[in-house]
Amino acid sequence: MTYSRILGTGSCLPEKVVTNHDLEKIVDTSDQWIQDRTGIKQRYIAGEHETTGDLAEQAARRAMEAAGKGPEDIDLIVLATTTPDQIFPSTACLVQSRLDIHGCPAFDIQAVCTGFVYALAAADNFIRAGNATCALVIGAETFSRILNWKDRGTCVLFGDGAGAVVIGASDEPGILSTHLHADGDYAKLLHVPDGVSRGYDQVQQERAFVEMRGNEVFKMAVNTLGRIVDETLEQNGLKKSDIDWLIPHQANYRIIRGIARKLQLPIERVVVTVAEHGNTSAASVPLALDVAVRDGRIKRGEMLLMEAFGGGFTWGSALVKY
Ligand code: ACO
Known about the structure:
By secondary structure, the chain is of the alpha/beta class. It folds into two domains: 3-171, Thiolase/Chalcone synthase (Peroxisomal Thiolase, Chain A, domain 1), CATH 3.40.47.10; 177-321, Peroxisomal Thiolase, Chain A, domain 1 (3-Layer(aba) Sandwich). The protein has helices at residues 20-24, 31-38, 52-67, 91-98, 115-128, 152-155, 200-204, 214-235, 253-262, 274-277, 284-294, and strands spanning 3-12, 16-19, 42-45, 76-80, 106-109, 134-142, 160-170, 175-182, 190-191, 211-212, 245-248, 303-310, 314-321. It has a five-stranded mixed sheet, with helices on both faces. Helix 4 (91-98) links the parallel strand 4 (76-80) and strand 5. It is globular. Bound molecules: acetyl coenzyme *A. Acetyl coenzyme *A (ACO) binds next to helix 2, helix 6, helix 8 and strand 12.
C-alpha cells in the first residue's frame, strides 16, 4: 500500500507589518478590542506589486529545499488560494513555470480558509492512487486585496502569506487520513458577493470585498471544528491523548482555545500564530506548520492534527504522522 508523507515545509511572509495600532488610524477600532476578541496583534500585508504567486513561489522553494527535492522531482502541484494572481492561468501554473517545473499537472483549489486541507487531501489521494510520487502543496493568499479597509468588522482580521509542503510516496503512513466537508447553504454568512460571472464592472468598481456575519460564523466554526476533531479521532481509532500537536486554522484565538480544551490538549501543544499572522486564509495552516517545524517544536514521528474552517462553508482536517 502506498501512503504519502511530508518531506519538507516552507513559508513566506511579506515584509510589511501592519499592527493593530496602525489600524486604529484608519478605522474606528482599538488594539485592545482586536486582541481581546481575536488574539491578533499584527498581520503582514503584501506590497503594492507583490502577488499571491510571489509568496507561493518563495514558500515552495523553501519547502523543496527542506525536502531535498528539485524541479525534476515534482510531478504534481496543487495550490489553494482565494486570491489568484489572474483569472487564468491558475496560480499553480504560474508558479510551476517560475519553478522551472514542466509537464506535470498543476491546478488551483478554492475552499477559502480550508483550502490547504483540501489541497493536501487532493495531493494525498493522487499519491495513494499511484498517479503522483512527489507533490508540491501550497496555500497562498493576498487576502488584503479583497478586504474593505473601511469595514472594521473584517479588515482587522486578515493578513497575507504563503505556506507549502512537499509530500512524497512512502511505504510507511505519513498522512493517515483527511476529512473534507462543505455546505453551500451557508454561503452568505461569509462571502465576496461579486465575481467574474456576476459582473466584471462591479469588480472594477472595487466592490469585490469580503462580507461576514462574524458572530454566526464564530458559532458555526466552534461547533463544526469540534465535530471534525471527533470524526478524525474516531475514524482512526485514536484517543485525544494520542495527538501531539494541534495545528489549527488561525482565525481567532478564542476558537483555537475552544478546540484545544475539547481535545484536553494544553495550549503549549497547539501551534498558535494568529497573534503575528492574523488570518491568512489558505496559508494559515501550512504557515503555522512551517513555523513549528523550523523552530524545532514539531519532531519526526509526532502525531499532528490539522483542521480548518472557512467560507462556503467548508471545513476539513488532516491527521498526519510527521
Ligand atoms: N473594533 C471595534 N469594534 C468592533 C470591531 C472592531 N474592529 N468590529 C466590530 N466591532 C463592534 C461591532 O460593531 C459590535 O458593536 P455593537 O455591539 O455596538 O453593535 C461589537 O463590536 C461586537 O461585534 P460582534 O461581531 O458581535 O463581535 P464578536 O465578539 O462576534 O467578534 C469577530 C467579532 C472577531 C469577527 C468574531 O465574530 C469572529 O472571530 N468570527 C469568526 C471569524 C472566523 O472564524 N472566520 C473563519 C473563516 S474566515 C474565511 O473563511 C475567509
